[in-house]
Structure formats: structure tokens, C-alpha cells
TrEMBL record:
<keyword id="KW-0813">Transport</keyword>
<comment type="similarity">
    <text>Belongs to the binding-protein-dependent transport system permease family. FecCD subfamily.</text>
</comment>
<keyword id="KW-1133">Transmembrane helix</keyword>
<dbReference type="GO" id="GO:0033214">
    <property type="term" value="P:siderophore-iron import into cell"/>
</dbReference>
<keyword id="KW-1003">Cell membrane</keyword>
<feature type="transmembrane region" description="Helical">
    <location>
        <begin position="297"/>
        <end position="317"/>
    </location>
</feature>
<feature type="transmembrane region" description="Helical">
    <location>
        <begin position="169"/>
        <end position="193"/>
    </location>
</feature>
<feature type="transmembrane region" description="Helical">
    <location>
        <begin position="213"/>
        <end position="233"/>
    </location>
</feature>
<feature type="transmembrane region" description="Helical">
    <location>
        <begin position="329"/>
        <end position="346"/>
    </location>
</feature>
<feature type="transmembrane region" description="Helical">
    <location>
        <begin position="142"/>
        <end position="162"/>
    </location>
</feature>
<feature type="transmembrane region" description="Helical">
    <location>
        <begin position="83"/>
        <end position="103"/>
    </location>
</feature>
<protein>
    <submittedName>
        <fullName>Iron ABC transporter permease</fullName>
    </submittedName>
</protein>
<feature type="transmembrane region" description="Helical">
    <location>
        <begin position="259"/>
        <end position="285"/>
    </location>
</feature>
<feature type="transmembrane region" description="Helical">
    <location>
        <begin position="31"/>
        <end position="53"/>
    </location>
</feature>
<dbReference type="GO" id="GO:0022857">
    <property type="term" value="F:transmembrane transporter activity"/>
</dbReference>
<dbReference type="InterPro" id="IPR000522">
    <property type="entry name" value="ABC_transptr_permease_BtuC"/>
</dbReference>
<keyword id="KW-0812">Transmembrane</keyword>
Length: 354
């Protein structure tokens, strides 16, 4: 009997093959290298963010303080004043970027991020409604999630099935986001100044003095969402093809789309509940990941890492550029990301690929 010839896929030149107890796994080399480099860069920026401030600490001092060593003042600064902010920045950036990657894949449009199609604004409006107390008593995190779900239902319902593939989907999302933004401003204009000031950080995006409970909930949701997204990578790659092709290749489109939408909305709502509407991280994170990975797949993990890195860098810039005055992280990301968004909209080659 002739031996069975090995599968050609096992000899792909740009992949590594791992075997363990009869299980074989094929891993793309470049994606692994990119994820490793992004992880190292994220750790380096996190240590830098923990060390910079009114009390400056070197990397070695930060490292010792993280492990409960060194002077008590250093441990206080790192653990009590800065660590939570850094963790919140990493978690929200990863959640926004992962949500953007999933939404873009679902809609087959690289402009279809939660911020651009109005999910961020709706989550913010519901969170602000909870803060200013307009007859609603739920926590801002729960209200933000409810707002994200409401906006998603409206956008997909008004755009229709065919609309999710073109600019009609974007236009409907912009309209829903504009209405949500107007409602937010209306609520802020009709409450006492103290309540308006308390709710204002939700409208611009900020990591200052955020709830540890909301951050912990986001961390749990991010861990679960990233795990599910990694399990769905192959199915997500099939979503990039036409429906008949994807079905022919074995994709269960209805189930995959429902899970993808659930993950994206949940991550957006939880992230907005922590940091407010931090603009364009959901757009820039996946774009950076695609540029680094150089493939037409769905860079789930790289998008999350790039989003976390981008959020930390933006927050660090906002804290240090005009110190001691702080620029909210949402303003920094909007200033950095808006020119790129404009280029995407005006670039004919990009519009032909979306």
C-alpha cells in the first residue's frame, strides 16, 4: 500500500507547524512575530507610563515596585496612583480595536467601526442618562451596554442586508450617532452644572479616575471575547467571501454573524463604560495590525494588541504634552486619527477595496 502523501498545506514556506499528541497546528510566522513585537512594545510603554509623572521613576524602580519591593513611596505611586489607569487603558484599547476588527469583518467594510456607525455615541448617551439621573437608575456600565445594543439594532435594521456592504451602512450609522450625540448634549444642557460636570468626561473619553469595578468587568469580558474571537478566526476569514462561497466552504453564516455581532457590541459597551467614547481606536487598531501582518486575513490578536498600545500612547501623550494640564485621551486619538480617516475616505484605491 502506498503511503499517504502529506498535505501541501504542511509545506507552506511562511508557516510553522506544531505537533502535540497527534494534534497538528499551522501558524503563520509573520503574525507570530508581529504579535510578539506588539506585546513587547506594549509592556515597554506600560512601564514607561507607570514611571512618568510628577514623581518620575526609572524602569528598574517601576519593576521593583510592581513586585512589592523598593521604597514605600514608589509602591504607592505605582500601585495606587498609576497601575489602574494603565490597566484600564490597555483593556479599553484592546476592546475597542477588537470590536472594530469584528465589526469590519461582519460588515465587509473597513470603515464600519463602532464609533463611526454610532454605537459609541449611543452607549455614551445612555451612560450620561444614568449619570445625570433622567429617570434611570441603572449603573453607567449597564446603560452603556444597553445603548450599544440599541444603536446596533437601529443601524442594521435601517441599513438592511445589502446596505451593510456599502456606504449606505456608514451613512445610517452616522445618522444614528448624530441623533445620540444630540440627545447627549440636550441632557447635559438641562441639568445643574454639577451634574453636567460629572457627566462631561463620558462625552470626550478619559481614563482619569475610572471605576475599578467597571475595569474588572471589562477585563473579564475582554478575556472571554478574545477567546471566542480566536476560536472564530477561520470562520471570520470566510466571511470576507461572498455568501455562496462562504457557505460552500463550510461556514455557518447565521451563527458566526450573530456571535460576531454579540462580541462587538458587548466589547464596545463595556469599553465605553470605562473610558467613554474614545474615537478612532477601533479604526486605527485593526489598520495597524493589517499593515504589520501584511495579509488579507482577520488579525484578531494583533488588532487587540495594537489598540491597547495605541490607547496607552495616546493617554501618555495627553498626560505629558501640556503637563500639569491633562488632555483627555479621546481628544488625542481624535486628533491623530481624523487625518487618517479623511485619507481613507478620499483615497479611491481604498474605496475600491472596502
Amino acid at each position: 500500500m502506498n503511503p499517504v502523501s502529506p498535505s501541501p498545506a504542511l509545506h507552506l514556506p511562511h508557516h510553522w507547524r506544531l505537533r502535540w499528541r497527534g494534534v497538528s497546528l499551522l501558524l503563520p510566522r509573520r503574525a507570530l512575530v508581529v504579535n510578539l513585537l506588539l506585546t513587547l512594545a506594549l509592556l515597554a510603554v506600560a512601564i514607561l507610563a507607570l514611571g512618568l509623572g510628577s514623581v518620575s521613576l526609572g524602569p528598574a524602580e517601576v519593576w521593583r515596585a510592581l513586585w512589592g519591593e523598593g521604597p514605600a513611596m514608589h509602591q504607592l505611586v505605582v500601585h495606587q496612583l498609576r497601575l489602574h489607569r494603565v490597566l484600564a487603558g490597555m483593556a479599553t484599547g484592546a476592546a475597542f480595536a477588537l470590536s472594530g476588527c469584528l465589526m469590519q469583518t461582519l460588515a465587509r467594510n473597513r470603515l464600519a467601526t463602532p464609533g463611526i456607525i454610532g454605537i459609541d455615541n449611543a452607549a455614551t448617551a445612555f451612560a450620561v442618562a444614568s449619570v445625570v439621573g433622567v429617570g434611570l437608575s441603572l449603573a453607567p456600565s449597564a446603560m452603556a451596554l444597553a445603548g450599544a445594543v440599541t444603536a446596533t439594532v437601529l443601524v442594521f435594521g435601517l441599513a438592511g442586508g445589502s446596505g451593510t456592504r456599502g456606504y449606505r451602512f456608514i451613512i445610517v450609522g452616522l445618522g444614528v450617532g448624530a441623533i445620540a450625540g444630540a440627545l447627549t448634549q440636550l441632557m447635559l444642557s438641562r441639568v445643574p452644572i454639577d451634574q453636567a460636570n460629572a457627566a462631561f468626561p463620558w462625552t470626550v473619553g478619559s481614563l482619569n479616575a475610572r471605576s475599578p469595578q467597571a475595569t474588572a468587568l471589562l477585563g473579564l469580558g475582554l478575556a472571554l471575547g478574545l477567546g471566542w474571537a480566536l476560536r472564530l478566526v477561520r470562520a471570520l476569514q470566510l466571511l470576507q467571501f461572498a455568501d455562496p462561497v462562504a457557505i460552500g466552504l463550510g461556514a455557518r453564516l447565521r451563527r458566526v454573524r450573530a456571535l460576531c455581532l454579540l462580541l462587538s457590541v458587548s466589547l464596545t459597551g463595556l469599553a465605553v463604560a470605562v473610558a467613554g467614547p474614545v474615537g478612532l481606536v477601533a479604526l486605527l487598531g485593526p489598520e495597524i495590525a493589517r499593515m504589520l501582518c501584511r495579509h488579507r486575513g482577520v488579525p484578531v490578536l494583533a488588532s487587540a494588541l495594537a489598540g491597547a498600545l495605541l490607547m496607552l500612547l495616546a493617554d501618555l501623550a495627553g498626560r505629558r504634552l501640556l503637563a500639569p494640564m491633562e488632555i483627555p485621551v479621546g481628544i488625542v486619538t481624535a486628533v491623530v486619527g481624523s487625518p487618517y480617516l479623511l485619507w481613507m475616505l478620499l483615497n479611491p484605491s481604498f474605496r475600491s477595496r472596502s
